[in-house]
Amino acid sequence: xxxxxxxxxxxxxxxxxSTIIGVGxxxxxxxxVRAADSGAPLVTFLGVVLAFVGLFLITxxxxxxxxxxxxxxxxxxxxxxxxxxxxxAIIGFFAVLTSLTAREFxxxxxxxxxxxxxxxxxxxxxxxxxxxxTRNDITTFAYIHYFYFPLLLGPALLxxxxxxxxxxxxxxxxxxxxxxxxxxxxxxxxGALFQGSFIITTVIPAMRHPxxxxxxxxxxxxxxxGLYVTIVAATVSVFGSEETKNLLWPTLELAKATSLPANVLxxxxxxxxxxxxxxxxxxxxxxxxxxxxxxxxxFRLRDHKMFAFFLLxxxxxxxxxxxxILNMYExxxxxxxxGLVITIAYPGLLLIIAMIRKKxxxxxxxxxxx
Length: 370
Prior knowledge:
Elements: H1 9-20, H2 28-36, H3 40-64, H4 70-78, H5 80-112, H6 119-133, H7 138-163, H8 183-192, H9 200-203, H10 213-239, H11 241-244, H12 250-256, H13 269-298, H14 307-310, H15 312-319, H16 325-356
Helix pairs in contact: 1-7, 1-10, 1-13, 2-3, 2-8, 2-10, 3-8, 3-10, 3-16, 4-5, 4-16, 5-6, 5-13, 5-15, 5-16, 6-13, 6-15, 7-10, 7-13, 8-16, 12-13
């Protein structure tokens, strides 16, 4: 059954932005400086470019098959059995991504705010909130993202702007960095932080005008990518690359070092964490929604609600696998880099085969449903 086409281009862009801006905001400067020292902003920019390649491929595929998501049109492109393997890999990957996002959220909360609260409690609360929210339809999903979008972007830009008064441009020189051995790995790690943008494959079939999906993708990547590059540049310019390497969550330290004019608030870390919790929720919400929505398509079910709590125990179990924070970030970086095969290579392969076989979806139903 074809979904009601209610999502506008602006809402689609808002979904991408609020999905991408998430848990990775805190450690991204650390990943970048480890890769290239003062060249961290450049590495981040290259990571954004890599992420956009994947988003471009999945958006072109979505526009080519405007009434279907990747689970559905991959069957038409490469056949039932091969597409089943690819679809299962996508669902599994985003289920794991949901787990790791929840675990990272739990670690930050018990370290910075609720120090006496068990890790399991913070993780299960966030997962339950996401699971309950994913029982809504795609239109409500879009409205939730659209509502939170300005609450995420505004405070983040404010903190970056206020932190620049403590910056020193010399900390950003040389622009290309001193170390280049880990640049490729760093670009892949940062590009992996944008994998939530894969949600566009679920959004396009519900857009009023699927032909505007590329514009939404471009705006989504420019705004979220621009924010990440700005955060990394601000952090390195304030602390320097060597000092940033010693900080577990450099962006949080940047918020602590930033104050409002006239010392209305001497530290912005508490306000920043409140915004960050919202950002984590929207990211978790999208990855979990993508996993269960595509699972319902894989099993040809009309509704995805039954999977909302069905997947929860497995997702929680995976979230508890990392032994500590350091082990968690090692797993996150490894899983993210492996995931690039699923989010970039697989859509690229599908697009090439679709073009060779001249496969294209039916676009006669692109008008909004009444």
